[in-house]
# Entry
Amino acid sequence: MTRTRESLDELMQRVLEGEASSAEQLELQAELARDPAAHTRFAAQADAFERLAQLELPAAPPGLHDAVMAQVRATPVASTTPHRAPGAALRRWAFPAVAAAVALVLLWFTAGPRAGGGPGRAAAPGPAELAGTMAQANIAGVLTLGEGDGALQVHWKRERGGFVLQLESGAEPVEVEVTALTPGSAVRLEFAAELDSTFFREFNVGLPAHRSESCQVTATTPSATLRIQAKFPDGRAVGREITITGLQDAAPGPGEPTSAPPAGH
Amino acid sequence: MDDETLVQRSLTGDHSAFAELVKRYERPLFHVALRTLRDHEEARDATQSAFVKAWLNLAQFDRTRRFFSWIYRITLNESLNRLRDRRPAEPLDERLVDGGVTPEDQVAGRERSEQLERAMARLTDKQREVIVLRHVLQLSYDEIADALQLPARTVKSRLFSARTRLGEILHDMGVALPPAASRSEAP
# Structure
């Protein structure tokens, strides 16, 4: 059975790390024999492994240990206040979080929705925005990172509890990094089955040319801001932030815009 | 004595226990700071500052996590803050290429090592970070994931692309790769 590229790359790593079984090693050998591109990727990885084996830890500067301890001895004994339990932290943040949510809702009703932008937000360059609910639209927004046929297209559409990001590479491979900037929102790769219900605030994925991958973004806040950065093979890096609002509305309200954000550079 | 015990004893004011933690981790943490800052003095200051912050905030350390992961984050943040402060005037790559002296540079005759250092300097901070954690500090994927607060899958993916990028940079630098045929037999 032929593996996906991602799975094959993972197998290469396992082999190079010495963690693969002999059956897996044979499987890789067979894959490399029939896939020249995989062979090249494996050769590059093997070369990097070999070179990186030369990296060594430098010695710590003389006197560092003594300098640290002199400063430590001069400061009060470490506090014995116990580490806060998660519940305590939750209680500590509960009020500000609720207050922030209320403020966002008030802001929405005070400023009102505007075409081409979110409620109460500056028109000056900033995060690309999509306001309101997107229940009527399959593809609710598009962001272009990069130029020409090599550009990365980012589509998103609303789903219960958050939204789905669809990342589509153009004619060249691209490394994409997605970071959730809004407290309470989290990002996970939809295809990363082993992550299940574990959410992370950041992920990156390498997309070959003309590849599409999607990820689920779960948000517990009315809006979520993400930073999406694309890095191209020639070293160009293009990043934008998107803020998607109205995530907790059940249905589209009258006059709510579904404007697409400007192309990002 | 394991880290957990040393942390527990440090919390009671036992300086010798904390001194053992410093001894255990000063080298890898200095390395992390040096990789980030590319300056021995600044890296030394950042490492010292990180240890002192760890001492002052030891009670806040979540003991379900590895001590190294925690102090690694402190060191990295300390280093990044310093880097951010100086970055407009002193770009990272220029400092390295124009004579930033790393310990590896001090070892005469290590041309390949120098080439590797230069190639590493051209990686992004995040790429360099995972390379150092995996290939220098020899942390497992799970340990790296814990230190960086990333899913292990992202760590693997980032490592793969970092090594690929490193190979491309070395190629651009004119550093010949070994013949592909010999490596294809590796598995």
About this structure: Chain B touches chain A through 67 residues (CB under 8 Å). The CA atoms of residues 6 and 17 of chain B lie 5 Å apart. The mean pLDDT of chain B is 79. Chain B is about 70% helix and 0% strand.
